[in-house]
Automatic annotation (TrEMBL):
Domain of life assignment: Bacteria
UniProt source species: Halanaerobium saccharolyticum
Swiss-Prot/TrEMBL keywords: Amino-acid transport, ATP-binding, Nucleotide-binding, Transport
Molecular functions (GO terms): ATP binding; ATP hydrolysis activity; branched-chain amino acid transmembrane transporter activity
Keyword Nucleotide-binding: yes
InterPro entries: AAA+_ATPase (IPR003593), ABC_transporter-like_ATP-bd (IPR003439), ABC_transporter-like_CS (IPR017871), BCAA_Transport_ATP-bd_LivF (IPR052156), P-loop_NTPase (IPR027417)
PANTHER family noted in UniProt: BRANCHED-CHAIN AMINO ACID TRANSPORT ATP-BINDING PROTEIN LIVF-RELATED (PTHR43820:SF7), HIGH-AFFINITY BRANCHED-CHAIN AMINO ACID TRANSPORT ATP-BINDING PROTEIN LIVF (PTHR43820)
Stretches assigned to the ABC transporter domain: 2-232
Name this polypeptide is given: Amino acid/amide ABC transporter ATP-binding protein 2 (HAAT family)
Signal peptide: none
Keyword Transport (UniProt): yes
PROSITE patterns membership: ABC_TRANSPORTER_1, ABC_TRANSPORTER_2
Length: 232
């Protein structure tokens, strides 16, 4: 459903991504792993045209994304949870969810039920300002904002960053649960072993280039990948 072909991207004059190709098929969980600063966030942002595209093609469900407005991308079922600043802290939980709802075709209450079912801790917090929640709960709000838009493909940038170990496993389980409802996932994750273990396929990035590409299991079992990128 997503096809990135030889993309070059960066910031102004600075090229960070040097010709990366990647694809996500319907129903897959695909992970992008790699060291800090290797360009994982820049690659995800390039899909949403949030960085400068210097070359290559990005095709999503038959449309050229480099020529598609953001609201059209969202209408086509593409949704992005960025690594930072992914909620409005001064708005309540419910107001955060409502912001995502304008493109929804289903009844708002149905969408909210789905999100509260997935993340029960948010129910009693729904009138609280999102900024007062714990890190794990904030991430639930960020997911909720994305899910209320009824995505077909969900882009996640380090969904477990900064979370306590208990929340890391919970959030990754939720990613699998969301995937089982038919949402394809493209995820950047620092917990590379956990991410690859639950992924259909994965990509290893280093210095803005794709170094390895295989099934999640294949990358986990690759000695070179394990030694260089997964801490042995
Ligand atoms: N807004 C920006 N302007 C200029 N350079 C940037 C900007 N954001 C990131 N960079 C640079 O781009 C490179 C890749 O950064 P990016 O955030 O994509 O890496 P990453 O793999 O997501 O790292 P991390 O694991 O720390 O999140 C880094 O050298 C970084 O300094
Ligand atoms: Mg990043």
């Amino acid at each position: 459903m997503l096809r990135i072909n030889e993309i070059y991207a960066g910031y102004g004059e600075i090229e960070i991504i040097h010709g990366i190709s990647l694809n996500v098929e319907q129903g897959e969980i695909v992970s992008i792993v790699g060291p800090n600063g290797s360009g994982k966030s820049t690659l995800l942002k390039s899909i949403f045209s949030l960085v400068d595209i210097m070359g290559g093609e990005i095709n999503y469900l038959g449309s050229d994304l480099t020529a598609t407005a953001t609201d059209q991308m969202i209408k086509k079922g593409l949704s992005f949870v960025p690594q930072t600043d992914n909620i409005f802290p001064t708005l309540t939980v419910e107001e955060n969810l409502e912001l995502g709802a304008y493109v929804s075709t289903k009844k708002l209450s149905d969408r909210f039920d789905l999100i509260y079912n997935l993340f029960p801790p948010l129910i009693e917090k729904r009138k609280k300002k999102a900024g007062t929640l714990s890190g794990g709960q904030r991430q639930m709000v960020a997911f909720g904002r994305a899910l209320v838009m009824e995505p077909k493909l969900l882009l996640l940038d380090e969904p477990t960053a900064g979370l306590a170990p208990m929340f890391i496993d919970l959030i990754l389980e939720k990613v699998e649960e969301i995937n089982k409802t038919g949402v394809s996932i493209l995820m950047v994750e620092q917990n590379a072993k956990k991410a690859l273990a639950m992924s259909d396929r994965g990509y290893v990035l280093a210095a803005g280039e794709k170094k390895y590409e295989d099934s999640g299991r294949g990358l986990l079992e690759n000695k070179e990948v394990a030694q260089l990128f997964l801490g042995g």
